[in-house]
Amino acid sequence: MTTLIENGRIILDGKLVRTNILIENEKIVYVGKRRPRNLDDRIDATDKLVLPGIVDAHAHIYDPMFPNREDFESGTKAAAAGGVTTVIDMVLSTPVDTVDRVEAKIHEGERSSLLDFSLHAGMMNSANLSNIKAIAALGVRSFKTFTCKPYYVDDLTLMSLLRETEAQSSILNVHAEDEQTANQNYEKLLRNGRMDPLAHLLWKPNIAEERAVKKLISLTRILNSRLHISHLSSRQGVTIVRNAKRRHVKVTAETCPHYLTLTGSEMKKQGPYVKMNPSLKSRQDVESLWRGLRNGSVDIVTSEHAPGERTEKEVGWTNIWQAWGGIPAIETMLPVLLSEGVHKKKVNLSTLQRVCCEKPAKIFGLYPRKGAIRKNSDADIVIIDLKKNRTVRGEKLHYKVGWTPYENWKLTGWPTLTMVRGRIIFENEQIIGKKGLGKFIPMQGNLTC
Fold this sequence. Notes:
Elements: E1 2-12, E2 15-24, E3 27-32, E4 41-44, E5 49-52, E6 54-59, H1 72-81, E7 84-89, H2 99-112, E8 116-119, H3 132-137, E9 142-146, H4 155-167, E10 171-175, H5 179-191, H6 199-203, H7 206-223, E11 227-229, H8 235-246, E12 251-255, H9 257-261, H10 266-270, H11 283-295, E13 300-301, H12 310-314, H13 333-342, H14 349-363, E14 381-391, E15 410-420, E16 423-427, E17 430-431
Parallel strand pairs: 1-4, 6-7, 7-8, 9-10, 10-11, 11-12, 12-13
Antiparallel strand pairs: 1-2, 2-3, 5-14, 14-15, 15-16, 16-17
Helix pairs in contact: 4-7, 7-8, 8-11
């Protein structure tokens, strides 16, 4: 099967270049001006942007305890409609911390996913530390842990995890909020009878992230290990990571579309629907995160897709502590970044490609198979109409939960075609891919910072 994507504009060395992309079977075999004959298919990408398929490196797609929220089929349909071609599934509640559990999740993904996928292991602690070597041998080289509840580990365990992940050419992936700060604030809020949505913003303020990131980077520097900070949300976190990179600490960090577009004031309007961990911050923090993406302090953007049903959210109007903390995000991630980032000149297209395609694939050992338009890379492609305007409606998206925090937002820039290994799975608002197309993609040992 040979396919030619014609007249598309790709980003090459920071510039938009009009070119053709020749695909044979599952691979890109040529990028340039030539137009071969005897093709099976031609795709006209005139006036369209052509990117490597988005690599979403943090999404809660499948947990067997919560099939009501999302599963591999529904989650990867939503991802495909949003231009995502590879997802790294993040453990949610069911542990993925043994060889058997990893293999079970791989089996379910290859049975049901429309997209290629990889996995994070977790939640890691002193009891499953000894499993890291065997799990890494399967190609799962990212291990999730927490500095706060519900999966808190102490400093000694953090050091042990950093040592062992480094020994296995792997990375420790950490939810970084300080437990002591959180506990003190929580007790005070409960004493004052605070159960309203705005109380959640006071539980883990900026200083909670600041203290945890500072500690993690100090340990990482001492041990010369690899550290990845999940969902960075504060200006203080950005500054600490930037300074650590200047000292050649092996740290990378991600942020998410919601931390780039929403602030804590949104809790007044949407209440528990925008409860998430870390919590939303201030406009200053939003702007600092955009700057961090531009200058490389913040390496990547991930969806941190973590949907909850309306009933799981609605309870938070009267008791915010009982509401599920997470939002659906994977389908709207790219349109939000295009509309709020590129069109508003907060980032350029080259930066977008770096933080959504190239760098996530590099950090987690998938590059250049994923995240690149180049010879011998997988033919994972998203074609984008940068001028396409669309009003977001939760009921029109592919999420199981049927809602979005971006309801009624008018966004400019939407995918028109998504291709995984040379097969079109989304085109002109229609999902045409079939479950079971996705393959597990092992992380290679060449993880880079």
